[in-house]
Predict the 3D structure of the following.
Amino acid sequence: MSLLRPVSAGWQPTVLRDAVEQLFAAPDAASVVEICEAMVAECGIAGRLDWRMPDEAPPAQGLDLAEDAHGLRVLSLHWEGEPPHPAVRELLTWFGRLASVRLRQQSETSRLYEAISRLALAERLQRALYAIAEQAANVHTDMAQMLRELHGIVGSLMYAENFYIALYDEAHDSVRFPYYVDTVDTAPPAPDVRIPLKELEHSLTWHLLRRTQPLMGSFEELAAQLEERFQPIGPACTYWLGVPLLRDQRTVGAIVVQSYRADTFYTAQDGELLNYVAQHIQAALERRQAQTELERRVAERTAALRETNRVLRQQVLQRQRGERLQAALFRIAELANHSESLDDFYAEVHRVIGGLLYARNFYIALLDEATQLLTFPYSVDEIDSNRAPRRHGRGVTEYVLRHGKPLLAAPADIEQLVAQGEIAHVGATAVCWLGVPLKAGGRSVGVLAVQSYSSEHTYNTRDQELLTFVGYHVANALQRKHSAESLKQAYTSLERRVAERTRALALANRDLREQIAERERVERRLKYETLHDSLTGLPNRTLLLQRLEQALQRYQANPLELFAVLFIDLDRFKVINDSVGHLVGDDLLFQVGGRVRACLKTRDVVARLGGDEFAVLLEGIRDAGNARQVAERIIGELQVPFRLGAKEIFTSASIGIALPSPHYQRAEELLRDADAAMYNAKDQGRHRAALFDDRLRREALSLLEMEGDLRRALARNEFVPFYQPVVALADGRVVGYEALLRWNHPERGLLAPGEFLAVAEESGCAESIDRQMFTQVMTKLPALAGANGFVSINVSARHFRLPDLDSRLLDLLRRHGVAPRSLRVEVTENALLDNPAQVKRILENLRTHGVGIALDDFGTGYSSLSYLHQYPFDTLKIDRSFINGLPDHGENQSVAVVRAIQVLADSMRMQVIAEGIENEHQRRRLLELGCRYAQGFLFARPQPAEVWLEGAP
């Protein structure tokens, strides 16, 4: 009850009650801190609240109030002056315990929300997979409807308003977009049009089809991933995510979602989810395509049989009509029905006509309309014993054909027609010639002709009428004869085609059964390959995670079911691969897998994760000691030399060990921590095992937090340049500035590059930070440099990998209206080693445009004198390590080095700047050695540009 007594003149009991109510309603840790600050103020204490690490010493004048749920930091109260009254301290201690309880409640609530979110995601994923399988099995929907349904399924898992599927045809090196939905693109590709892949070269779709890994990020992030080697096609989106469709480790298509909204982007979890769903979509598409292809082939065969049946029916009808007409024919028609062949028919017709009129010289001519060739299938003549086929010309036979009328002509009539140009002389001239057209369907198809070479036998009009009547029936008989022959051939052809189609259908059914059996075999093989490594035959990461998840579930149900995860990495494997080749390296990996397997029990699992990394799941162990014994046994086994062909290979391994604990919720977390322990073993000297502990966990969390802060800092422009003056040693006059990177961290304050630059380089943020720095420097450079000064920027070796670095810097100068002579680029000696020819070209181009070039930290690298005349340097910067070694009086090695550098620079007409001047005797000795310019804390510490522009000394 003493806690409720007033502790100051203005204290009210309701204040404590309200503070407690606000504390247990606080939504987050920041609100808890604000309430505690208000409570401290109510108690009349002039102090501040800060978070500190548990391993840091508690404040001398202060009090620890609360601790977060994970024990990673402590909320401490610092006061100035007299300590508070003991009753106040007791009250604050009690209130701090309540704050700790509220922090633990908030942590538990956050964990429960995360678990519910994961469960909801798993349920949505399961429903999506069921829906994909249902669409693949539904034969009543067409392909377009199925693709729309698949779009809806993906949209239920993530933002997919803009979605398309691309299918790659390796045989034709082309791509087709069977489904394409985009809210911004006004000219989407047609679903049935195949586009040559070369037309999409360097686009995001092209890159995705050329690799087997997903692509995700904004255009800027994708440009950094692809090293600027991509050409955007279509509208520019805010965020892009694409995953490949794989078959036998080859890319056969892609699924892409993209966002045009500034507040919508995709996470790594979205990428993994879409990649997983894409493989099921690929299986559904292949199944539906196979079904569609089978239906198409069956439809084609059915249509062919239907057409054949139709032709057969037509021919049967024609024959029936021909049979009905036979009753009305004269004897020539009967001859046509009874003769064995056309030759016999022609001979019988000749005999019939011979019984009616003089027909010693007789022939039948037929015209082939397709080739315009005139043939004589039957000809008997006293003079022209052989009538060869000829082109349609100007003969008397062709005259009858052209006019479609009979012709009775004597020699005088023939001469008259010749004079008129109607005919030309062909063959022997007859005394009398009579020809009638053979008409079929109202057109002339041939000529029946008789002629006489003797004046004793001539023809008259009666003979012409008779022959015309006979010719009509001959034409009909010929037509029926040809129809019969055609029908016979059609029957034969139909029987042959039916037999061929029957055999084809039988073969197709057999092939279909074989394909089904083959697909089932392939599915079994794919399932095995999906869960096993193709090189060693060991389980892969997927199967290991499944077994690890089962072991973790058993441990959560019964903590006595202890197990361990071993992460194994071969030491110096890259050296072995580079020296003896990849084939020997693969053989080594195969033997390593066998040796590791021999060190384990039957129930244990050894898996190859990729490259030279292996993982082991040990089940049924008692404690960490058992896991260490197995790890040491594996390390000892791998020490034994490997006999690979004629070579004896030595290798070793570093092993990380992770044991389960209640905070682990996913199998991947155990594997991740074992990997971290393995790297700790490598840092300790390799060829050993290391156990993952709380220190490594804190380091991992700190690194993860730092990476997140870096990315948020880029978005918030928290990186700022500080400028350190370069002064003349003689009079302290400022001649220029060096721009130095600083991070204005919202919680940790101002950070130097050494505290975060290594993490930035590993996470890929370093180049973006530098570009942000360059832009900020350009805005302040004209004011800082003035008429004759300069500002120098540090350009690291990674920037020189860009072949157009010089163009980018010059464009940046032009955009900000900065004179090139006001900028100085500082490079280290290490930057000159990666690509000397490209670095030299870039520096020479910058120097040609007036940009100054300085060699930074001279003397600490390789210090090759060839650099000084190969590269266009105009300034040398002496490293602070030589300046720190300068004595007050006398000579030493540092003095000799500085003097030599100064003499060398003077001889080459280069400016020398000494770095790190911190006391007066260093300035004096540098003046004695001839150095004229320097920078360091003796003159000024780095400050923002505004400090120098406001006239600070």
Remarks:
- The chain is about 50% helix and 20% strand.
- The two ends are 60 Å apart (CA to CA).
- The longest strand covers residues 734-745.
